[in-house]
Specification:
By secondary structure, the protein is of the alpha+beta class. It has a single domain, classed as Fimbrial-type adhesion domain (Immunoglobulin-like, Sandwich). It is built from one helix and nine strands. Strand 4 (about 95) and strand 5 form a beta hairpin. The radius of gyration is 37 Å and the shape is rod-shaped.
């Protein structure tokens, strides 16, 4: 009798739990319905430009260098424009000022190292868009090498410049 009582207490509840679990697992839904949604994106033209450092030129070394970094979305045409203090007679000659009438003339030349074809001569840079540096964005950083060369001879040169601190601020604008 003890064996039957033990058997009833342990096996029957276990079998009942197994039966109920199998019924729940095989339950099905009466109907289904489906839907869908669309995922879209629009990529617009976007660009940024930054400069490494300032440029220092001296009579002993009248040439300075700087690297601009241009980042534009892939396929975006861009043009880097340079604006500073210009000589009225020569729009592409920039001037460093010590205040008053004291100037040292210099020119900027530049080459876009990534998007411009190999061997292209550096362009003289000024306010005229024909002489600015252009390219097409790749989505990655592209560089523009800038060289500043100060006049060593002539009226507005290191040769005749009075003692003072000369400077010019070049505004770099990227159009895209």
């Amino acid at each position: 009798m003890k064996i039957i009582s033990f058997f009833r207490k342990s096996i029957i509840p276990f079998a009942l739990v197994q039966f109920l679990a199998s019924c729940a697992a095989t339950a099905s839904f009466a109907a289904t319905s489906t839907g869908s949604f669309t995922v879209t994106s629009t990529v617009g033209a976007a660009c940024s430009v930054s400069a490494d450092t300032g440029v220092t030129m001296t009579l002993a070394d009248p040439t300075g260098h700087n690297i601009l970094t241009v980042v534009c979305t892939n396929g975006s045409a861009w043009t880097v424009q340079f604006v500073g203090l210009h000589d009225a007679a020569d729009f592409f000659t920039h001037k460093m000022s010590a205040g008053g009438a004291n100037y040292i003339s210099y020119v900027l030349t530049g080459t876009a190292t990534a998007p411009i074809a190999f061997g292209e001569a550096p362009k003289r840079l000024g306010g005229n868009p024909t002489y600015n540096v252009s390219g097409t964005g790749t989505g990655a950083a592209q560089t523009v090498s800038i060289t500043s060369t100060a006049a060593t001879l002539g009226v507005d040169s290191f040769q005749y410049a009075p003692v003072g601190s000369y400077s010019d601020t070049i505004t770099v604008t990227i159009a895209f």
